[in-house]
Design goal:
Length: about 200
Amino acid sequence: MRFPYFERLSAKDKRIYLKSDAMRVVKVPDAAALEPLVAELRAQLQAGRRLRTTRAANALVLALCKQLGAPPVRVRVREVRPSWEGGELHGLYTFAAPGEVPEIEVWMRTVAKGQIVRFRTFLRTLLHEVCHHLDATLYEMSESFHTHGFFARESSLARQLLQEEKSDRSFGSERSERKPAQLDLFAGVSRGSTRSDRR
């Protein structure tokens, strides 16, 4: 089943969408080797240490990209999520300009009370943005659409990094808590542009 915006895509973008939708798994060659990095990220986030959380997030994402054969991406951890009338921004992926490194931004505190977000939510947001990075680099997609396959790849990474062998339904409560709004990704956004996720 496709998201409704599929019908508004160009023929080229429909092909990209279908390619994305068909890919359901990202196999991490040695997920167990990343477990200490996941534990460090959890500890620093829960302690509310932004700079150390940033370092831990970069270490994890760099190691993950190396295992997957993807180029590096810089991670920046911010404090309180930006908000607007329609919701909050959880994560943001910015395509790299020529000669530069692409960037992921994630926020660690909620808008309502400034509380540290739950680790699972934070990690899934981080991995969501990593999936955009993989689309743009490893999978050579000129657009990175939110498809069912995209969300399945996010879940696949989360299960492996959390050492959990469960179905995607195991994350259902979290998914409903922060159901992503479908963005206007078919409006001719170029590789040099910023692509954001309302998560």
